[in-house]
């Protein structure tokens, strides 16, 4: 039983297809499998995956931003404190008061003014011995620092100072006297609490931005999942995998050859049977079909240059029936599907069957003819004219015997002689006279007999068909010669082949005759050409009037050539 399949996937909804196009259909098998797969949906998987990745990215980004931001703020506060400290240390009033021991106690008021103007957390002024001249806590004024004065080296110092007020970003600048010696120190600090408040505001900004990114990511994930679902025809991943497995099993499990082509003529799908018939490798996927198939009718059918249902194409080994169907989705062409069926054996059987039917019709006609002759003999015997009856029977017998004996005496292969006799008999019933020319001889089997029978039979069938509408007399002359290989010539007195059709008549699928039911036309001469080309011979077609076909086949080495052997021995 013939199996067939379609491997192209289509969406569930689409416009009504145009004539000659593959319609869009639902994918019922994949949806039927939906009940067998209860995993997370594609939308959920995409959403969870993207959220996980984005959440990880946002957390890492927020952490890195916070660390970098804190380091930047620390540095900014230290530099700000340094600017205030160096500016304060350079004030003439401060320098002179500190050099004199601040008898008028103006340093605390100067420090308070700087705190009010520049807004640091504190400004502490000490002499080179560490005695405080200003401090936010008045009780500590006049007290000595717990740690030594850091700026005695004449340089500024930055850092974080735990101090009596708490951790702060601190900068210390030296105060120079009139002689350039260090006479004291200005320590300016910005408490860590103020910095942390600014950092907290940055964290809230980061959190808000992260939340916005997550919301946009969720929306993008939903849109992306919907897009993917639409592109994949609303199928889940498990359904896509099931459908792919089903398609592969179906595509490679059918007898027909299937080739899928895109709009550029590149192979997108090809099954094992197609690889066998077209003789291509697995690397054919993605290649242009014009690079895989030689120039000729088969390539034209595959590429769509020739159109039509059940078109015939011949390869070196097979007779193929080709069908090409354009495929469109949503009114947009996406390529075509080509199916090929190997009809070599079936076509041979069909042609043999038609030959048998022709012989049966000829035998039926001969039956009537011989019945009439028997009636004549019976009538002569009834009249008592025995001698006349004997003479009549002898004449009939001699006529039939002479035809068969004449063929057997000149045509050594019995199969070929039988074929010629059958063709002569069948043609006679169509009022066509086939004559084997007087000089014809074929005494040695120099070529394959099956190929020889195919060539002679097809040439004779073509000649008889060409005479169907010709006026009487209708004759076909057959010439056979084995002097140098095998020479076959078939000539008729029909209309012949027009000069502009000489190349076309030997192309598979070309025919000017009406097709009988069950019979494919345009194959006979193409088969002859294929056999001749494979054997290394020649096929010549001459223009009309009158059909004229000549074939030459070289003698096969394994069958010998007695004439050639004798000539060589003589030399």
UniProtKB/TrEMBL annotation:
Give GO terms: molecular function aspect only: ATP binding; phosphorelay sensor kinase activity
The subcellular location is:
Cell membrane
According to the entry, every stretch annotated as the Histidine kinase domain falls at 365-557
Question: Which membrane topology describes this protein?
Answer: Multi-pass membrane protein
Q: Which UniProt keywords apply?
A: ATP-binding, Cell membrane, Kinase, Membrane, Nucleotide-binding, Phosphoprotein, Transferase, Transmembrane, Transmembrane helix, Two-component regulatory system
Which Pfam families has this protein been placed in?
Answer: HATPase_c, PAS, sCache_3_2, SPOB_a
Highest rank taxon of the organism: Bacteria
Cellular component per GO? Answer: plasma membrane
Q: Which InterPro entries match?
A: 2C_sensor_his_kinase, HATPase_C_sf, HATPase_dom, His_kinase_dom, PAS, PAS-like_dom_sf, PAS_fold, sCache_3
- Any single GO BP term: regulation of DNA-templated transcription
Q: Which reaction does it catalyse?
A: ATP + protein L-histidine = ADP + protein N-phospho-L-histidine
Report the EC number(s), separated by commas if there are several: 2.7.13.3
Q: Which residues cross the membrane?
A: 46-68, 203-224
PANTHER family in the cross-refs: SENSOR PROTEIN CREC (PTHR44936:SF9)
Q: What is this protein called?
A: histidine kinase
Task: Tell me what organism the protein belongs to.
Answer: Arthrobacter wenxiniae
